Amino acid sequence: MKFLKFLVIFLILSSTVSCITNKDLVYIQDKGTKTEGIQINEIDSKPYRVQVNDLISIKIKALDPKLVEIFSTTNSGGGGQTEQELYFTGYSVDSHGNIRVPVLGEINVLGFSVEEIRNLIEKRLLAEYFTEDARIYVTVNLAGFRYVINGEIGSPGITYIFQDKVTILEAIANSGDIALTGNRKDVEIIRKNPNGYEIIHVDLTDRALLTSPKLYLQPNDYVYVKPLKQKSWGTGTTVIQTVGAVVSALSLITTSILLFRNI
């Protein structure tokens, strides 16, 4: 009788401790933050600063296209380019922080934003080669928003998204969502900066994330989704799985004890 009571208490405690609760799975929960009129604050998202090995896409246009043909590295055509094409046609930032542009030569862009690079190129073109009447138009973009995601995620690996800004929620959705055994309360973003690397901890279950600068990724971020402790325990992710695992373990222990007594 005592063993039966012990078994019931043990099963209850195991199921409450080992299984994954709804609070561990739901994104953007209200944890005491104000939920009315909440807005994503894009002002807090600082512009990305170009780093070594980045790929930059530069397009120079003018009222007369023939005037700027010499500045182009590709044949002008319609449609976007694939990431493979951009690798061969984009401007790679070398170890000194320079890119080599036809006619203009080497330009140092290390630590510049894409807007600052655009202004720099426009000023040089107008100062050295063209007048205002040429109607020079320059566009500068990163050649795809690149990030790496790993850990308890549906599709880990290197991903390119062709847009200027990406939130961590978009990146996770684009990579197949976090597995049941993934820790949504402590996702790590490993980010490179001029002084080295920094690790940013993000709680995806907290609605306060929507007004935090942590919401936005930066190009070349490494996102790591850590496993929950339940995965290492191996007791299951639901109550049914946990109870089944515990019952199996107890059955094995009981059988072993009975066999040992009969020896």
Descriptive account of the structure:
This protein is of the alpha+beta class and 263 residues long. Helix content is 29%, strand content 21%. The chain has six helices and ten strands; from the N terminus they run H-E-H-E-E-E-H-E-E-E-H-E-E-E-H-H. The protein has helices spanning 2-18, 83-89, 114-128, 168-174, 229-233, 239-262, and strands at 55-61, 91-92, 98-101, 105-108, 137-142, 145-151, 157-161, 187-193, 196-202, 221-225. The strands form three sheets. Strands 7-6-10-8-9 form a five-stranded mixed sheet, with no helix packed on it. A three-stranded antiparallel sheet has the order 2-1-5, sandwiched between helices. Strand 3 (98-101) and strand 4 (105-108) form a beta hairpin. Helix 1 (2-18) runs antiparallel to helix 6. The radius of gyration is 27 Å and the shape is elongated. The model is unreliable at 13-17 and 75-79 (pLDDT under 50).
Shape: elongated
From the helix content, strand content and strand pairing, which structural class follows? alpha+beta
Query: Biggest β-sheet: count, sense, barrel?
Result: 5 strands, mixed
Beta-strand fraction estimate: 15-25%
Q: Helical percent range?
A: 25-40%
Backbone CA Rg: 27 Å
Mean pLDDT: 80
Series of secondary-structure elements, N-terminal to C-terminal: HEHEEEHEEEHEEEHH
Task: Outline the low-pLDDT stretches.
Answer: 13-17, 75-79
The CA-CA distance between the termini, in Å, is: 25 Å
Q: How many strands?
A: 10
Task: Tell me the number of helical segments per DSSP (H or I, 4 or more residues long).
Answer: 6
Main-sheet strand order equals 7-6-10-8-9
